[in-house]
Amino acid sequence: MQPLPAAGRDRTGRKRQGFPEGDGGPGTQAHRVPPGLGTEAVLKLRDGIVELYRKAATSIPQDVEEALRNALSAETSAPARDTLNRIIENIRASRQIERPVCHDTGVPVFHIRAPRGLSHIDLRNTVREATVIATEKELLQPNAIDVITNENTGNNVGIGFPIIYVEETADDRLKIDLLMKTSGCENVSQLYRLPVEDLGAGMDLEGVRLCVLDAVRKAEGRGCPPYTIGIGVGAAFDQVAVLATFQLFRRLTDTSEHQAIAALEERLLREINAIGPGPAGPDITINAIGVKIGINHRHSSSYCVGVSVSCWASRRARLIW
């Protein structure tokens, strides 16, 4: 196996479009090996991330598929049952032929938990290199668009693209979670600052509940339901937006450690499924297959709520190194 080219350059040495210089980006320096990892290990990690992309793009998690099958069993609307049947058949076919389950592979979001001593810069570079390769293998649709020129980088790498969060942990294993969230469901996600007078939503969990129900109503069936809905509660907009998205990494079968939050998750799922419309129209009874809430402490005068919506193709995968 040949060594990696300088980060941000192709194998002929030319600069790859979408690799910004400086600001923690790949730059033009040779790919440094994180402490404790040899060059061969870095290459294996890069290839492992490519396979992580393959898994996320082509194979819906088992808990999500099971929830969709349960939704089909519970659904009473004939048009909605037909839609869910086609969704489940699409999941089966995609897994069999190893092609993306949806043509919109969205914005890749990585949550990386790294042991002490691993370079976060180099982990980001490795993810970017893997993203280029995954795009070349047609596991990803090229989606990174320059805000100024409207040009597509063609490789899913650009400023802040893919989205990569890295944190240090006391664990001795590297854990990489990947979420592929499409534009349709991203465009129906919402942010709120409590209180919201129009909703009668105060600065409490009841206010959070009213905001989430409002977000689902505003979606009006767009964003390809049945949804998985992540909710973040805390002091600031940027904080709750990330926290809400991180809830989409959770399995649908897990339960919040906070009894009041677990009860609110269950209540919201019931109420969301009583709203309509869903994937097929006003007769739908299953709008969502999961609701997950994450909480942070808030400021005495600041109570923010983020609602991050995922479509039925809730594509997530994990690599443990």
Structure in words:
This protein folds into three domains: 39-57 and 102-181, Dihydrodipicolinate Reductase, domain 2 (2-Layer Sandwich), CATH 3.30.360; 59-97; 184-314, no CATH class. Helices cover 35% and strands 18% of the residues. The protein has eight helices and eight strands. Helix 1 packs across helix 4. Strand 1, helix 4 (120-136) and strand 2 (163-169) form a beta-alpha-beta unit. With 321 residues, the protein is of the alpha/beta class.
Structural class: alpha/beta
Helix-strand string: HHHEHEEHEHEHHEEE
Q: Summarize model confidence as the mean pLDDT.
A: 88
Please report the distance between the alpha carbons of the first and last residues: 20 Å
Low-pLDDT sequence parts:
1-34
> Which percent bin holds the helix content?
25-40%
Oligomer: single chain
Biggest pleated sheet: 4 strands, mixed
How big a fraction of the residues is strand? 15-25%
Q: What's the alpha carbon Rg, rounded to whole Å?
A: 21 Å
Side-by-side strand order of the widest sheet: 2-1-3-8
**Overall structural domain count:** 3
- Total strand count, please? 8
Categorize the overall geometry.
globular
SS element count, helices: 8
Short key terms for the protein model shown above:
321 residues, alpha/beta, Dihydrodipicolinate Reductase, domain 2, globular, disordered N terminus
How would you briefly describe this protein structure?
This protein has helices at residues 39-58, 62-74, 78-97, 120-136, 183-186, 205-219, 237-246, 259-272, and strands at residues 107-115, 163-169, 175-181, 190-194, 227-234, 288-295, 303-310, 315-320.
